[in-house]
Amino acid sequence: xxxxxxxxxxxxxxxxxxxxxRAFADEAIPADVVxxxxxxxxxxxxxxxxxxWSAIRVTDPAAKASLAEIGHQxxxxxxxxxYVFVLDEHRNAAIAAAKGVDVDSDAxxxxxxxxxxxxxxxxxxxxxxxxxxxxxxxxxxxxLGSLLNDVEGLIDLLALPKYTYPVLGLAIxxxxxxxxxxxxxxxxxxxxxxxxxxxxxxxxxxxxxxDADVHRYxxxxxxxxxxxxxxxxxxxxxxxxxxxxxxxxxxxxxxxRLDR
Length: 260
Fold this sequence. Notes:
By secondary structure, this protein is α+β, with helices and mostly antiparallel strands. The protein folds into two domains: about 10-180, NADH Oxidase (3-Layer(aba) Sandwich), CATH 3.40.109; about 185-235, no CATH class. The chain has ten helices and four strands, in the order ααβααβααβαβααα. The chain is globular, with a radius of gyration of 21 Å. A four-stranded antiparallel beta sheet has the order 1-2-4-3, sandwiched between helices. The longest helix is centred in the middle third of the chain and has 24 residues, at about 115-135. It has helices at about 10-15, 30-40, 60-70, 75-80, 90-100, 115-135, 150-155, 200-220, 230-240, 245-255; strands at about 55, 80-90, 140-145, 165-175.
C-alpha cells in the first residue's frame, strides 16, 4: 500500500521547528489574531467536557511588571501578549451550586485530586493549542513555568478565587531573535512499545551522547556562560528545594483536597 501521508506539511513543520522565543519586537498583536488564538485554545480537548480551565490575558503594565518580578525574567513585561492559564473548577462549582449541589459537603468531588489533575491537563492542552497556532502565524512564544516561583503572590495578583490554581503562563509576540533548535532526548529512552522495557544501563549509556549534544548546543548559544550537561542539570534539580512551589498547602488553601 502506498504511503499517502504528507510528512512535511505546514503543521508538522511548525511543531518540529518549535523553539522558545524570549525577545519580542515592540509590535502589538492585532485584535483578530488575539481572538483567533483564544478561540483555538477553546477548541482543545477537555476531560468529560467540563471545560475546567480559564486563561487570564494580562494587559496592565503594572501587573506585567509584577509577573516579570515573580518569574525573575524581565522579558515577561515586554511580551505583547501575555496569558496565565489556570485550572478552574470555580465556574463549575458555581454552576453546580445553582443546580442545588452542596459544594461544601463531602459529596462534592470537583475539588478532589483527580479533577485537579484533569483540569491541569486541560489547561496545558489549551495552552499548547494556542502556542502552536501562534507559531503557525509566524509569532513566537515562551511557556512561563517561572510564574510558579511565587504561587501565592500570583493568586493574589490575579485575584484567583476558590477552586482555581495557576498552571503556566504563555508570552507571545513577533520574534526578535532566532535561537537554534534545542536537542531532544534519544527516542530509545523516551518512546517505548507496549511496556516501559528499557533498563537503567541502557538509559545511562544513551544519555552520554545526549549530554555532549546539549553541551554543544549551550556552548554555541552562549559562549560567555557555560551550561551544565543534561545529566548534571537533572542531578542539580533532583535536590533543588521547592520552597513556595510545593503544591499541596496552597492547593488546600484554594479549596482542593488532594488527599482524595
